[in-house]
């Protein structure tokens, strides 16, 4: 159970809310300026922005390594669904004809 000074992350591990450790980095002026501009846009300090960004990236890397353990039958069913022809439907048609947000 988490104590009041801890929160549970998406990875189900408690993380201390108190910050009693430091990380020192050496970066170029251009990198620092870019980080500062992005932090300002999000209304965060440089430290908050860097910590949030590094923490999110660490979660992403770890979650990308998730292993799905299935038996041979379930794996073959999964492969069959991937290889099966697409069944046309209205949702798929809309998805494939919609303009991408970045276009």
TrEMBL record:
The keyword Phosphoprotein does not apply. SUPFAM superfamilies: Ribbon-helix-helix. One of its GO terms (biological process) is regulation of DNA-templated transcription. GO terms for molecular function: DNA binding. Keywords: DNA-binding, Repressor, Toxin-antitoxin system, Transcription, Transcription regulation. Belongs to the TacA antitoxin family. This is DUF1778 domain-containing protein. It comes from Pseudanabaena catenata USMAC16.
